[in-house]
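Notes from the 1:1 (GR / supervisor)

We went over the backlog. Supervisor wanted to see one worked example end to end before approving the batch request, so GR pasted a single chain during the call. The sequence is below; no edits were made to it. Supervisor asked that the structure be written out right there so they could see what the output format looks like.
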Amino acid sequence: MPRLQILELPEGAGDDRPPFALVIDRVSPEWVDVNAESMRDIKDKIGARCVLAFDGDDVEIPANEIPVDPNGYPVRPRGEGDFEQLHEQLKKGLR
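Structure output shown during the call:
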């Protein structure tokens, strides 16, 4: 069954949102042929820079890996968020 992943790309000066590529792996060559037009439509609708489809082996994107502890359980990263910007965006959206 195909798997979807997001590959974040470096931002450029004119980017108004973070650029990304949609990566689809675990597909057959026939699947790509049949769905080529649909992938172009999806790319345009979601704002991806491109759609990359791979048959055969899995494509592992290191940034998408979930760290695990010695027992094999997912480690939940902790961080400090910038909630001031989020608060301002929510205030604008509620008007």
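Supervisor's comment: The chain has a mean pLDDT of 83.
Batch request approved.
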